[in-house]
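Lab notes, practical 5.
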Amino acid sequence: MLKNARVLVCLLLILLLTIGSVGCSNTEQLRPTSTAAPVPVKEKEVTLQTAAPAEPEVMIPAQTVEDNEYAEYRFSGTYDTATMGTATVTADLLYDGTYELVLDLKGMFSNTPSWGDWEYNIADDVFILTDTDNNLSFTAIKNTDSYGFTFDFRGTPIEMSATMTGEKAASALHDGPVQEKEATEDTPAVERTILLEIEGIDHTNDLGKKDGFFFRFYSDHSIAIYLVKRDAESSSGTWSYDEENGLKLTVDDNEIEIQKENGENTFLAAAQLAPGMAFARKYVISEDELRAALSESKESLTVVAADNRVSRYAAWTEEEWNTLWKEADMPLYTDLYSIKERSSETDNKFIEQLPKEAFDATDARGTVYRLEYDTYIYDYYYSNNIPETEWKPVTKACYIYVPADYDADKQYDVYYLMHGATGSEASWFSFNCDGTYTNVGEGDFIVMLDALTNTGKLMPAIYVSATVNTDVSSFEKKIQNTYSATNELASFPYELVNDLVPAVESRFSTYAEGIAPEQLKASRYHRAFGGLSLGAAVVWNAMPIAYEYIAYYAPLANGCDPGDVEDEYPAAKALGEKMSAFKDVELGFLFASSGNKDHTYAHEYVVYDVLFENWDELRYGENTSNFRPVNGTHSAKYFMLGVFNSMQVFFAEETH
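Output from the prediction step:
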């Protein structure tokens, strides 16, 4: 039922206890000795035909509930962290038999839920919550009018409970959760490739969560409305488009009225959560988007409707802006560890906080694309010695930002970015300085790129927001049994050079003359890789594998080994030995950064310090810096600051 059920509480809380990352040293990641060319980008051959829309999933009747209009019941509990106070954990049991688990610590992580299935056993009077992808199951047992269960995280119990009467529990279930509809033999044998995806306007619920809907247009001329985050289909229909008749849509067998004005198609469409529980959203598609994406296109590159970029802080005073960056209640992690000071004139290029004007929206807006590409879980196949002839491809997605003045006749540098432990390919392009999230392509990072590129403070470049996450539903069941998130992390460096870089740079004008290995290596000084938190660990891990293809690196706020800080020492030493093996390949620049109020500060510092002592290539100020912003915390605004600062030393002028 769910495409991306994440690890339950463990994955959400791991950022709080240590570094929120998976490391690199315990399993040595060496580049395969084979000199075979990267896996080519595979274009999907699609036979276009009109398909009858699938019947909408039958939803159980809605009831009026408190707090969360989408939830049948809510379990809640608290977790006392060692350094950051008390976190709130809630599990909302939704009408369709799934649950949403959310951790909230001072506003952090509350936009990144984990999902699973739930059921109620009337005979035993218990609730059962299951994370199907990780084979985890938790039973909530009744005690008087309270049902409660406990998560055991590294020996620390997290107790959650919900209060309700037995009559309410029995009557609310409506004969149990919704059953998934079985596939029929009448289903057309047509590959459903996503041609276009647009999100509805004004789709934030009363809880402030982004729980709205988005439209997908498929190559078989079907359409579907999906609930944001869960990616669960809610309504379906068909589409058609030609120059004479324009766009025509049906949703749930109802023809949709479309208003056409100034080259745009505007319409309202409703998505069903339950009978009597429909939500109408306004969607806008331009004629240019239609011609590019819907005219029998085989292209997996689609434009993201992301024009609602605003100046969120225009009315703020300078005092309010400065207070946002200080976060005085956070602990000073530098008090716990001795610091080896290094400095150079290069450090003077970096700033402690971004000015408020960096987030002023401009009319000169870059374009955001969504790209699907095929890749493989390389570590799974390598570690199990499976021949390449037996590898099964998986389809992943990334988001791409190109500057407002993009010109296919010019060449552009490319900056690849990785999210943190609770994120996705959408994270970089949707988070804001104040800790909130918005639509993909409308977050503060995108507003910053527009503003600073337009004023010349950032050189025009292409930015790619990627993910380590994989939709394991596209794997065969036998593969899922031995597949884990560790495979994703260890696989991504190979995916980066073999699949992601070729997929992006074959579609946009970069300094690569082609996507053959030697052509990508020749353009390595025009390519960077950076990541936040867990993404920083991915960057450290990727360096020995991607070094011949990428010259610039920006690990932001993390080390490369899980567990205690002491574990970072052997990990970093091993990394230094691997990097020292590259005798004839020079580093462009290594920019590491972690603020003194960031809980990963010690991890990042130790890795950098040990690596500096074990990799002779590093020359402080010439090809590396370790910048530690005062008051810097583990937050989106400081991750954006890290990208800005790194761009002051990346992509040397003499290479342009």
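Observations recorded by the TA: The mean pLDDT is 75. The first strand starts at residue 71 and ends at 80.
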